[in-house]
Structures are given as structure tokens and as C-alpha cells.
Amino acid sequence: MKVVAVMTRAPQAPVDATLDGSGTVSVPVVAGPKTRLAPALPDAADREALQRAMLADVLTRARAVSGAIVRVAVTPGGSPDALADVGVAPGHVLTQQGESLGDRMRGVFADLFRRGARQVLVVGSDLPLLTTAILDEAFAALAADPRHVVLGPASDGGYYLLGLHRPQVPDLFTGVRWSTKYTLMDTLRRCEFEERRVTFLPILDDVDEPADLERLRATLAAAPDLAPHTAAAVAIARGR
Questions:
Q1: Strand, helix or coil for residue 116
Q2: 53 Cβ partners below 8 Å, 6+ apart?
Q3: CATH assignment of 2-238?
Q4: Judging by beta carbons within 10 Å of its beta carbon (0-12, 13-18, 19+), is residue 23 exposed, middle or buried?
Q5: Which among 108, 174, 195, 223 would be 20 to 30 A from 98, CA to CA?
Q6: pTM over 0.85
Q7: What are 164-220's pLDDT values in tens digits?
């Protein structure tokens, strides 16, 4: 069984925001949504709408992977029912466990392997330009060599995807400086310690900083079909 697990914040209390220009959808407000984007998007509702739209685009690409199932791993405290508007059934929602990002990722892999998954890709939810082809490439690498670690490098020095094959979850998480420019480098050192070869995917931008958002705006202005939900959310926010 192949699984794409998308990690995201837990949605909580809803407010109204328009994602696709044709209607109004419920957008949950989460404490501190995308706070680093506040200089570009000062309205918290706009930031939450953007986060929700990016999640919708990532889910669209993940669902197009042949033979894979999709799960969403949320931070504690939210209701699984709150993801229904992006097509996620409550039974397809996992709750992240652990203090650090590494602990939570380790837990997602372990949980899914216990449930019978053979190949798992853990991806972030702020990757509107993620493609199905990239996910297919990651699964192909795991099928070719189960001891390989698959990494999708992010342009900021982190990574947007980690892929592993069961049965074990190697310790790629201890001593990693999370959410810094050293995250990928520290993870590669852990791969070397665990004697795991690494397959790299194409570099992508995640959307954490105002400069990331400006690049995304320019890309989607030229090609909105790359991430239609995100393109709509960005256009709405810009028009306020």
C-alpha cells in the first residue's frame, strides 16, 4: 500500500472566505496561521484562506497518484470533520503526536506502517506547485530500493517531502535543526549515519515568507492552472 500523508495545522473555528470565485466556503481559523506572511497578508483570514487553498491543491495532486491513498496528519486540537470541505473524510485524518516536528513526522511514519503501508511519502501542505509527477518519481525510487530515503529539497534549506519504505523508520530526526536553513543538511548527516542512500527530487519553493508569496503570485498570474485553488485565494487577497 502506498500512502501520501499531508501534514498541516488542525482546523478549528470557521470563518467565511471565498476560494474559487464562485461561492463561499468555510475556512477554519487556526491560532497564528502563517504568521511570517503577515507583512504581505496582514489579515489572518486571508492567510488562513491561502493555507486552506494550498492544502486543496496538494490534495488534488496526491489523489492523482495511481494506487496511492491519501491521509492528512493534523496538529492536535482540531476536529477531523473540519476538513470535509476539501474532501477529507474524518477516518482519513491522523493526529500528529510529539513535541518537535521530527517527533511528529516519525510518529506519522510509524502509525502508517503499523496500519499496513509499505511506502509512505510525508509532504507539507504549503506546496501549491507540487506535481503528481514528483510524487510518482518518489514512489518509483522507493520501489526500486526499499532502503533508499527520498528527499524533496526546498529552496530555503529544508525539505518538502520525505519518503520511506517499511518496515522500519530510521532515525533521521534526532539533532536536526528544524525550520532553519540547516534542516536538509542535518537530515543528510542522519542518512549517512543510518547508512541510507538518498534519492533527490526536484527543488521546490514552499510558501513561508513574503518573498515566497510574491514569486508564487508571479508564477500563478502566468499559469493559474498549476494551482487553481491557490491562484484564486491569492487573487482574492490581493483585491482586498
A1: coil
A2: 19, 128, 227, 229, 230, 232, 233, 234
A3: 3.90.550.10
A4: exposed
A5: 195
A6: yes
A7: 999 889 999 999 999 999 999 999 999 999 999 999 999 999 998 999 999 999 999
